[in-house]
């Protein structure tokens, strides 16, 4: 019999480091079969993401993203995740979409940073001040215990509210904040780059989350050209997300510039303390499946 797992109940037994360990274990299983369907109406999006990992099960996540919803007092993102068992394909759980998205998105970025950022990184800049930015603060706090956080947002009032809630410093000048950071994590809905390569410094780690459509990107060509580029999955980023696809199509970068994804664990690492590493968090359905299984296992004790 399937269970329904709500946000609060499902979150009780979770921890960020435990989640990254579950993601590592999931990538040691046979490679996921995935299928994504995107439907658009202007800037509104319907995403159906499905994944099947032999030994772990199946998951289908359905999500709607309506950017103007907050103006009407309605959440921007809505949806649900259905988790099916591996042996018989039976429905095991219907899990709150926001729970899976929160932990998948920030956990994905945390795992990338734990592998690519310098271990001594302390100054973390968050670009954006929404729900995802808050999750990133929580996740990075678990992975970098002595971190000091700065937040920048186009709307200063939002940054100030974030800073009060998450004990952060508000940045007025984005360029200056980027230059001073050890880790830059960006979670915006931008279709035009907000992060410029000319600002990046040796040894930094860049974590890009916000872009999920073909027309979206957060970093300019110079940033990608200056960095060693990693993605969570080649299959869900190349050909799908503007962050890498736009510069690939223009010739600003080549396919060989994308060094590794999580399935190439041996190559997914920093070479030296001077490297600028850049991670694109694509958030594919296989990660939703891994996180859903982790949530159900913790929920059932």
Describe the structure.
With 301 residues, this protein is of the alpha/beta class. The chain folds into two domains: 3-101 and 286-300, 2-Layer Sandwich (ornithine cyclodeaminase, domain 1); 103-284, NAD(P)-binding Rossmann-like Domain (Rossmann fold, 3-Layer(aba) Sandwich), CATH 3.40.50. The chain contains ten helices and 14 strands. Strands 9-8-7-10-11-14-12-13 form an eight-stranded parallel sheet, with helices on both faces. Strand 7, helix 4 and strand 8 (148-152) form a beta-alpha-beta unit. Helix 2 (16-26) packs across helix 3, helix 2 packs across helix 10 and helix 3 (97-116) crosses helix 10. It is globular, with a radius of gyration of 18 Å. The mean pLDDT is 96.
Write a short abstract of this structure.
The chain has 301 residues and is of the alpha/beta class. It has 10 helices and 14 strands. The two termini are 17 Å apart.
Strand line-up across the major sheet:
9-8-7-10-11-14-12-13
* Rg value: 18 Å
Q: Beta-sheet strand percentage?
A: 25-35%
Shape label: globular
Class from secondary-structure proportions: alpha/beta
CATH domain topology of the largest domain: Rossmann fold
The proportion of residues forming helix, as a percent range, comes to 25-40%
**What is the CATH C level class of the largest domain, in words?**
Alpha Beta
**What number of structural domains do the residues give?**
2
CATH superfamily of the largest domain: NAD(P)-binding Rossmann-like Domain
> Roughly what is the average pLDDT, rounded to an integer?
96
N-end to C-end Cα span = 17 Å
User: H/E order of the elements?
Assistant: EHHEEEEEHEHEHEHEEHEHHEEH
Q: Per CATH, which architecture of the largest domain? A: 3-Layer(aba) Sandwich
Total beta strand runs: 14
* Spans where pLDDT lies below 50 across 5 or more residues: none
Number of continuous helical runs: 10
Main pleated sheet? 8 strands, parallel
């Amino acid at each position: 019999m399937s269970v329904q797992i709500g946000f609060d109940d499902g979150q009780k037994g979770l921890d960020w480091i435990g989640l990254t360990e579950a993601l590592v274990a999931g990538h040691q299983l046979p490679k996921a079969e995935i299928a994504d369907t995107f439907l658009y109406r202007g800037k509104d999006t319907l995403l159906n993401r499905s994944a099947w990992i032999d030994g772990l099960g199946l998951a289908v996540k359905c999500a709607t993203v309506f950017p103007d919803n907050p103006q009407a007092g309605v959440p921007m993102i809505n949806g649900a995740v259905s988790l099916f068992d591996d042996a018989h394909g039976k429905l095991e759980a219907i899990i709150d979409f926001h729970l899976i998205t929160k932990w998948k998105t920030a956990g994905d970025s945390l795992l990338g940073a734990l592998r690519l950022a310098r271990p001594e990184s302390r100054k973390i800049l968050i670009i954006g001040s929404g729900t995802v930015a808050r999750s990133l603060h929580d996740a990075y706090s678990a992975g970098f215990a002595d971190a000091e956080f700065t937040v920048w947002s186009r709307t200063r009032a939002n940054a100030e509210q974030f800073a009060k809630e998450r004990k952060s410093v508000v940045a007025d000048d984005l360029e200056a904040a980027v230059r001073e950071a050890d880790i830059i994590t960006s979670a915006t809905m931008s279709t035009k780059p907000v992060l410029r390569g000319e600002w990046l410094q040796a040894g930094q780690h860049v974590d890009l989350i916000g872009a999920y459509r073909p027309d979206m990107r957060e970093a300019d060509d110079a940033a990608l050209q200056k960095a060693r580029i990693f993605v969570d999955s080649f299959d869900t980023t190349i050909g799908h997300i503007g962050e890498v696809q736009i510069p690939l199509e223009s010739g600003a970068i080549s396919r060989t510039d994308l060094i590794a994804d999580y399935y190439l664990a041996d190559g997914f690492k920093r070479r030296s303390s001077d490297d600028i590493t850049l991670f694109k968090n694509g958030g594919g359905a296989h990660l939703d499946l891994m996180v859903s299984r982790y949530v159900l296992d913790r929920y059932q004790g």
